[in-house]
Amino acid sequence: MPGPDPPAARRTPRADARRNRERILALAKEAFTHSGPQISLDELARQAGVGAGTLYRHFPTRGDLLEAVYREEVERLVAAEVRLAEALPPIEALRAWLLLFVDYIATKQIVAAALETLLCGPSSVFEASGVRITGAIEALVRRAVRGGDLRSDLDPIDLLRALIGVANVASGPDWPANARRLVEILLAGARPAGTAAALPASAE
After folding, report:
1. 92, 98, 70: which is closest to 180 by C-alpha?
2. 33 and 115 part of one domain
3. Which among 160, 168, 55 has a CA at the least distance from the CA of 113?
4. CA 151, CA 191: separation in Å to the nearest integer?
5. Does residue 136 register a pLDDT over 50?
6. Cα–Cα distance between 121 and 116 in angstroms, integer?
7. Fewer Cβ atoms within 10 Å of its own Cβ: the N or the C terminal residue of the chain?
8. Strand, coil or helix: what is 1?
């Protein structure tokens, strides 16, 4: 009679189950962002190429799926800080991260409101994310300041506030495009005195 699976095997999900989960999350993020939180979960399962039972095994409720989408976005945003810093010059790493932050805002706008409605109040899922996101942008800004790309008195949080502000006051679906242009304006305005750069052609 075969013995029980070793601990490592018990802890590691099957590859196909992991791929199913990742595919569901990717499609859910897109659907929530473009169509709102009341999307049909059965239709989402169909688009992901899985049965409804598979979706509900991973995410028993709509709230579980919304929370998982949000957690995935936070992890992606935080992990990007290290990845971008290793691959790009400091100012380019910061620019790329801020563009990802615009995408994060779009998801959070849908997920946060829906979760607060479903859970009758703010969810604890949001409590730790702010600290982690703040730490990521502070590290990116410090590198850009040390490299001479940004003025030393720049408050990293002001960059986030500006982008969140655009999202909060925008009245149309094109606010992400406005926010991406604002990234370029903010970085150009944060250059050290005497070194202000022109906006890239893509931002004009």
Report:
1. 98
2. no
3. 168
4. 6
5. yes
6. 5
7. N
8. coil
The amino acid occupying position 16 is D
> What does the radius of gyration of the chain's CA atoms come to, in whole angstroms?
20
Query: Tens digits of per-residue pLDDT, 94-125?
Result: 999 999 999 888 888 777 777 766 655 556 66
In the block, tokens 């800080």 appear at: 81
CB 70 within 8 A of CB 108: yes
**CB-side exposure of 118: number of CA atoms within 13 Å?**
17
Q: What pLDDT is attached to residue 100? A: 94
Q: Would you call 170 helix, strand, or coil by DSSP? A: coil
Mean pLDDT of the chain: 83
Q: Which structural domain, as residue segments, surrounds residue 117? A: 69-203
Amino acid making up residue 84: L
Q: Of 94, 185, 192, whose CA–CA distance to 149 is shortest?
A: 192
Q: Are 13 and 19 in contact (CB under 8 A)?
A: no
> Within this chain, do residues 100 and 149 fall inside the same structural domain, yes or no?
yes
Q: 38: helix, coil or strand?
A: coil
Map residue 37 onto helix, strand or coil.
Answer: coil
